[in-house]
Amino acid sequence: MAVTLSIDRRAALKAKHRAAILQAARDLVEERGGRGFSVEDLASRADIARRTVFNHFGSLDEVLLAVCEQELSVIIDRFLADMAKTPVGDGSRSSMFDELESAARGADLAPAIAGMYRILGDPGKDDPKAAVLTQTAFARVTERLRDEVARRHPAADALDAALLVESLMSGIVVIAEHWLTTTGPRLDQDALDDWDALLARLVHSVRSGYMADD
After folding, report:
1. What global pTM score does this model have?
2. Does the pLDDT at position 157 exceed 80?
3. Dihedral sign (CA 205, 209, 213, 214)
C-alpha cells in the first residue's frame, strides 16, 4: 500500500511539474512574443530546477511543440468529432475525402494556425527553425488523422487512405504559410474569409487532381 501511495505521489508531482512547465512557456510566449526565452527563464518561471525541465522534455523546442499540441488539441478534437458525426462512407477515396473535407471546413483551423504562429514564429524563409517546428507539429496532427481514417475505414486500401490524409494536410501547411504571409495571423472577418477561400482552393485542387480517377 505504501509503495502504491509513493508511486501515486511521484506521478502527481510529475504531472504538476509538466503542467507548470507548459504554463510557464505559454506565459513567456505571451510576454515576449514568441520563442525569445531560454530553458533557464522557463525553469525560473515554473519555479523548478533546470534539470527538471529536461526530465520532461528533451529540449526547449519540445516544450514549444507540446504547447502547440495543447493549442491544437481542442481544434483537432473538434476535427475528429466532426468526422465521427459524419456517416461512414463506402471506403472509396471520394467518400473518405468528403469526410475529411467536411471536418476541415468545420474545425476552426485559422485560430489554431494563428496560435502556432504566435508560439513558433513565422514559418517562412526568414525563420527556418519555425518552419521545421511547424512541420513537426502538423506531422503529429496528421498521424492522428491517419489513425482515425484507418479506424473508420478498416477495409479501405491503407495506402490510399494515408495518401489522401497526407495530401490534404500537406496542402493545409502550404496554405497556412501563404495565409500568414499575405494576411498575417489576424482573426478578423476579412482574414477568416481569406482562410476559407484558400481552404476551398485547396479542396478543389486535391479533389480535381488526386481524386480524378476514383
Report:
1. 0.70
2. yes
3. negative
